[in-house]
Amino acid sequence: MNKALAALVSASLATSAAPAFAGDDARHPTIVLVHGAFVDGSGWSGVYQILRSEGYEVVVLQNPTTSLEDDAAATRRALATISGKAVLVGHSYGGVVITEAGSDPKVSALVYVAAFAPDQGESVSSIVASAPPGVPALPIVPSADGMLMLDKAKFPALFAADVAPDRARFMADSQQPWGAKALEGKISTPAWKTRPSWFLIPRDDHVIPPSGQHGMAQRAGATIREVPGSHAVYVSNPQAVAALIEEAAASASANPAQ
Length: 258
Description:
By secondary structure, this protein is α/β, with parallel strands linked by helices. The protein contains 11 helices and 9 strands.
């Protein structure tokens, strides 16, 4: 290791105890945005910009989506950089991640956006397997190394029907492969049992049936909001998503029970 690199590493280690995000504004908790399967954190850009304009500190995760264990660990690492309270927001499979990681003492509220909210011992795989007859199977294309993608030709209409066609096509072509291990990852202790929860359900979701989302939300005792939109409602309607996050953040700040 040369001297310049050694100095850089030394300086980094010397300051590593200081949190990267303040998160201690008396008005606002820090918002942590957790993406789901087949996509990455860039889809949160609209929500991020709105929240930032309202004075929130926002952390956008880039989860590996290789396994629930890996993704929950990445979420906890992000929470470790925050000195104050946090609101965890998960889209789709990201709901599984915040359910597993959201028992962290810094988390004051959970927000599910077109998401899974499993109970103890449940996984995406077990929830999908228990879907009522007639729910179509997703056009998942597996690879030899255990990673999964959605059929690119079917992605726009299935995942992002209300997103501008060019952007929906880009989302299809820039998919982040999803690990089969993540599909099978089981929840240990569901955070929604001890944290107040909010749930945004898009009426035209073709990935997670709205009826299934309602069932999970009601089981979690979540505050439910329903809006028109596709599974990619966080991209097509960032205003509605940001509004629900702010509602959860305001409630958590007014009732700091955690």
